[in-house]
Design goal:
Blueprint: E1 5-16, E2 19-30, E3 34-38, H1 45-53, E4 60-65, E5 68-69, H2 75-81, E6 83-85, H3 98-109, H4 114-128, H5 143-156, E7 161-165, H6 173-188, E8 192-196, H7 200-206, E9 209-214, E10 217-222, H8 224-228, H9 231-236, H10 241-245
Helix pairs in contact: 3-4, 3-5, 4-5
Amino acid sequence: MTKTSLLETKKIRKSFVGVVALKDVSLNVWENEILGLIGPNGAGKTTLFNVIAGKEQPTSGAIDFRSQDITRLRPDQRCHLGIARTFQIPQPFSQMSVFENVMVALHFGASGHTGQLEDEASRILAQVGLERWAFDESSSLPLGARKKLELARALATKPTLLLLDEVMGGLRPNEVTEIMEAIRQVRATGVTIIMIEHVMRAVMGLADRVVVLHHGELIAEGSPAEITRNEAVIEAYLGGAANVSA
């Protein structure tokens, strides 16, 4: 079966003062796959997300999305093209309700009259399991619900490519299971997903393919099973195979 590239990063390099965070990272992301992006803390994972989403400009290299060069586009322009992301630390509009947060994102990413958007907001909240908190102030939510709200707001922009930055970090096992199922449902609608995640149960249970960053370099790529056996990955995690496959 022929694979179609949705996103391609070409020798992406990102330097900050005294630090090279990304070193010529090149990868293809295929349409409708779930790609796991893993690596130790400080490996450059979130920096790569920032460059893909437009929050940071690469020092050198290029990014193509649907064969269009988006390297210099602003984050809002990329979002309109179909790239959405979540953040490690949820950043909702804290004085708004959960429902209102999703409505704001819908007004940015979708068209239609208010009734249609309200119906869509309710559908998205149900999809991620937030119906019970719909009219609660977002600042009052427990961590698991705030993570789900991050996912809901990203989905409301109608993405083709969804970047999930540790959306399961700090959650209880049952909450991880709930979000894993929500992600499967999102992919079933045709959305391509790249996920940064330290919860290896989620990475190994969801990803079709895994890439590994270490000190800003892409050191391994393969199926989840191949990655757990890769000696370079085991060494990078400084704890043996158990830490990678746990």
